[in-house]
Amino acid sequence: MVLHDERLADSIAALRDDRLSPTAYVDELRERTGRVEPQIHAFVSEDGRWERVLADAAALEARFPNPADRPPLYGVPIGVKDIFHVDGLPTRAGSTLPPAVLTEQQGEAVQRMQAAGALVIGKTVTTEFAYFEPGPTRNPHNTAHTPGGSSSGSAAAVAAGLCPFAFGSQTVGSVIRPAAFCGVVGFKPTFDRIPPSGMIQFSESVDHVGLFTQDTEGAELAAACLCDDWRHLPSQREKPVLGVPAGPYLDQVSAEGRRGFETHLDALRDAGFELVRVPTLEDIEEINERHERLNAAELAIAHEAWYDTFAEEYSETTRSLIEEGQAVPTKEIARGRQGRIELRERLEETMVDAGIDLWVAPSAPGAAPAGIETTGDPAMNLPWTHSGLPTIALPGTTTDDGLPLGVQCVAPFGADERLLDWSHELAAALQ
């Protein structure tokens, strides 16, 4: 194991009240990265990384000498998945295409973190163009296992304590699944709640900007800086009623994953949460097919110009999906896009009818698979991504081999604030 406690909320408090300076924090992470990074390969290599970050940290200290004036994320070092553009850094997206072709202007999400005082410590490894072709990153719990994908480097970096926050993205399960595999918190907000500008697009209709932290408190603090129109609501006193989606969707979980999930449900019940098993997603195979076809088509659209010139630079895995997408009829794309709205409305109607506040489900079919040749199955995340509902991954128990198993909680569209407020008590119950 190469794990390390690096809670974002604790780091924020220490930086803001001068118990820790940004330059001292960067020095700590530089030392730890030097020891750990050769084992997990979470970051894209960068010449002069630490000189750059230390200079940025020193400039921040000079700009905000008075603690009262400091922005909310003052001095927080962050990792940025290498499909997001960052001014001054190349974008490679886990591919062999020329960075000069891929790199564009920095987007809103990175800009908001920097405006809040965060320091970009580096780009994190992603699978090729955020699809399935894996990079070199390994799971900090056991380096013989995958960290998940496509936000592999971000999840591993946070789990290993190399940064307290990292950006991810999710088009099927690329935040929630690696969060589960690496035993950290992953948050995928309501669709489009964090603007996706400045990010290499996979599927316009379902791409979500997401984030990783080790703590739900930190996730909430970061989300308040990132999400459009964030509302600071009073803390909710009543526990949410939790709906367990019974039926073929849950049948996609492995035997080991199901045992772990029932243990998680017992822990939530013991903590006073009401659980209701609700039949839903009976048509999960149809939903899966619709989502996968929509993704393929929109990936082909997003990569049309690059693919015409650089087709041979794409991996066989990604090339196959693009060529499948090129054959998807326009009418099928339109049906796929409309299906997202219909699924969202159906899930929310079911919640109202059953009297539940949140869905709760396994974050993945099981623990992280052995090897790094594949990144695991995103099936448990797909319907929540397709419908655009806000979702948080919470660490739970571990397998007999010490690999994490997680729980995902899903709220109605736009209820990100309630979800994150409830997540603190839910996370405590699962530990």
From TrEMBL:
Gene3D superfamilies: Amidase signature (AS) domain. InterPro entries: Amidase, Amidase_dom, AS_sf. Residues 26-420 form the Amidase domain. GO terms for molecular function: catalytic activity. It comes from the Archaea. SUPFAM superfamilies: Amidase signature (AS) enzymes. It holds the Pfam family Amidase. This is Amidase.
